[in-house]
Amino acid sequence: MTLLAALDPADADLTACLARVMAAVLKPGDVVALEGPVGAGKTHFARAFIRARQGDLAEDVPSPTFTLVQTYADPAGTEIWHADLYRLTHPDEMAELGLDQAMTDSIVLIEWPDHGGDLPDPLTVRLENVPDFPDLRRITLSGSEPHWGLMTRLPAIARLIHRAGWADARVVPLAGDASSRRYFRLLDGQRSAVLMDAAPGTTGPYVAMTQWLRGRDLHAPQILATDQVEGLLLLEDLGDDLIARVLEDQPGLAPRIYDRMTDLLIELHGHAAPDFVLRLNGAELARQAGLFADYYPVAAGARGKGAGVADAIRALHRELAEDMPPVLGLRDFHAENLIWRGDRPLGILDFQDAVAVHPAYDLVSGLQDARRDVDPEIEAAQIDRYIAATGVDADRFRAAYALLGAQRNLRIMGIFTRLARLEGKRRYLAFMPRVWALIQRDIAHPALAPLAAALEGVPAPTPQIIERIASA
């Protein structure tokens, strides 16, 4: 058993806050051993944990000292067992109480766990009183790695939430993205916030871009509190109305929504790009597109094909795009990263990897979406809208748009293949046929003939090839 993290000192509120954070990440089959002397706060911790899991359905959580075991259910259908083994006379009684079965399919919190014998790979939460300070305690988390490795983050998260005035909030996990970041929603009465849990020391670009965007009245989430050393940010909650969901529920809004997306880019491109972002020039675009040649042709059974893609993109960028000054590109500008707020400005998410790039880059990101079909008439209308509003040369802009669309989509094909082959993330393979169709449309532009030639012999992602990639 390894010492994972400590929270020292912790008052009753911070102790309960840690329990609520833990309640957001534990799953059926997890066992928590609550150790510590009488009065150290074991039941206080368990009560906060259980009530957080139950949310609006929270009930009284009495100590199980006399009943030995109490069971609860959360809204997701997970059963939570709260046991106090102090009066247990023999470890064999664990089976009589049903705890042996519960530890396979429920979340089990056990006070006085030493009375129950060996437990199956528990997370040990030890609470100890602080001498001379009866209202404070030291809390340590211990367990096996890698099973419990992510628990090392919980005390830092609890400290930030407590310091920011959200100690009483329920913590609910949110869907993450393709990165290693995790997100949680904090719910406290009528208010809510979002916690970003990133790798320690990596939030600087996000904070810098937030300040830049908000300074120009573009609606990135307000930063409410930070622990940048630990990689934690507490953010304004812009709600759940991702444009992707709104388009699915109300497809008739698509023309209006895409007008608003294009207008946001027009406004964004009216400001000079900050000097602290990466320049996404022809050389860098070519390097990134190299992911395609590195992964997809080999996985598709066409080793050696597509080797000239990067060189073609580098040369075409020099010919078609380098005469236009770069603008700020949010890089992942699409329906999954924009919040629909009615008549209010669109909310912007996931912009920490912003770059200085050709103006067509984000437009093609929003209109050639790997995850969903965009009506070609809407795509054409938005290109026209951007050209009319900015006064750029229409023919050159359309050629650059096709080039950047091909570059982005080739890179995406490479990333999806790599995720499937090296990380076992195969769900993205379902998007490959759509992405390939977009590539074919882009390289059909007469100016992209050299790129089309570089792709000769590379097979389309047929069901058979996708299965080959998935099963490797």
UniProtKB/TrEMBL annotation:
Cellular compartment(s): Cytoplasm
Signal peptide start and end residues: none
One protein family per Pfam: TsaE
Keyword tags: ATP-binding, Cytoplasm, Magnesium, Metal-binding, Nucleotide-binding, tRNA processing
Gene Ontology, cellular component aspect: cytoplasm
Coiled-coil ranges (or none): none
GO biological process, one term: tRNA threonylcarbamoyladenosine modification
Family indicated by similarity: Belongs to the TsaE family.
Listed name of the protein: tRNA threonylcarbamoyladenosine biosynthesis protein TsaE
The gene coding this protein: tsaE
